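Q: What would this chain look like folded?
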Amino acid sequence: VDVFTRRTVTPGMTTAVLIMLDRSGSMVDAVSIAGQPVTRLDACMGTLAIMLPALDRAGAESAATAFFGNTSVDGIHEDTLHPLTTWGGKANPDAFLTRWASVAPGAGTPMVREARYAQRELMARRVERRVCLWLCDGLPNGGRWGGAQAVATELATQRRQGVEHYGIGIQADLSMVFSPDHSVSVMDLAALPKAVEAMLTRGADRHA
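A: My prediction, written as structure tokens:
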């Protein structure tokens, strides 16, 4: 069943959806789904491989970007963004998975610079509704990356400017950053597709 095309895109309203996918090292930790060992990344990738073509069929523009904090050879942390799919093209799950496999996991979950990147990407789309969906397994790092409160402030500002941000916590609670109304924690990763659908539907209902 295509869980993403029913009510996740507001009828009659042009929509752009940017998926921000955590590529931190902990996302490759092993978990279990229906008794089978997988990683958190595996679960996210399976969901997105279904979700991106479904958004395309529903008439929404979509793109996906991986993000993490990387440590360079001189020991200085650099924020890292890796676009996985681009705007305007037809979603191709195979190409998406190939691009994803080429991005090695890094350290940390920076989000302030990443949120500003997301805002620039979405504001450049000529649409009526702009949605950023984050899939993460932890809270933002502090220090020069900015901690949870700095990210929460940035996201609240962007919401007032017309960019909706929603957090899907992969066995993590993201409510400190996204607020309870804009986040959900998924402990059983078999339920991840339905959690993503519910979060997108919640936003669509606000615009109905």
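The first strand starts at residue 15 and ends at 22.
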